[in-house]
UniProtKB/TrEMBL annotation:
InterPro entries attached to this UniProt entry: Glyas_Bleomycin-R_OHBP_Dase, Glyas_Fos-R_dOase_dom, MMCE/EMCE_epimerase, VOC_core, YwkD-like_dom
Metal-binding among keywords: yes
SUPFAM superfamilies given in the database record: Glyoxalase/Bleomycin resistance protein/Dihydroxybiphenyl dioxygenase (SSF54593)
Source taxonomy: Bacteria, Pseudomonadati, Bacteroidota, Cytophagia, Cytophagales
Chain ranges of the VOC domain: 5-127
Ligase among keywords: no
Protein's name according to its UniProt entry: VOC family protein
UniProt keyword terms in alphabetical order: Metal-binding
Length: 127
């Protein structure tokens, strides 16, 4: 078996319209396709990010994430940016709270964290 890349990351949100606005308007991810699945009372929004995708789902009454960010399982989702200072300023101008920029002690690269509307930890990692 040879795994070659990540195809998509799936996120389940609590407020579909709020999360859709965050990922498309705040982060600027283009919509590939939006589907409402009536039998599940669920939306599925496919968003492009480079050659990969984020699938944003809504379900009635999804369980909450146990804790942030040290819960067992997926820790966070990291996005590569060319200029972390500019990206942080853009997010802050859109009223997104961003942590202080830090330096990765192993790579020397700069990074920071912010959250989506459901508190999912998201990372910016400078190229």
């Amino acid at each position: 078996m040879q795994v070659t890349k990540i195809h998509h990351v799936a996120i389940i949100c609590s407020d579909y319209q709020k999360s859709k606005a965050f990922y498309t308007q705040i982060l600027g991810l283009p919509i590939i396709q939006e589907t409402f699945r009536a039998e599940r009372n669920s939306y599925k929004l496919d968003l492009a990010i480079g050659q990969q995708q984020i699938e944003l789902f809504s379900f009635p009454n999804p369980p909450k994430r146990p804790s942030r960010p040290e819960a067992q399982g997926l820790r966070h989702l990291a996005f590569v940016v060319d200029n972390i200072d500019e990206t942080v300023k853009e997010l802050q101008a859109k009223k997104v709270e961003v942590e202080a920029i830090r330096v990765d002690e192993l790579t020397g690269k700069r990074f920071t964290f912010f959250s989506d509307p459901d508190g999912l930890p998201l990372e910016l990692y400078e190229k």
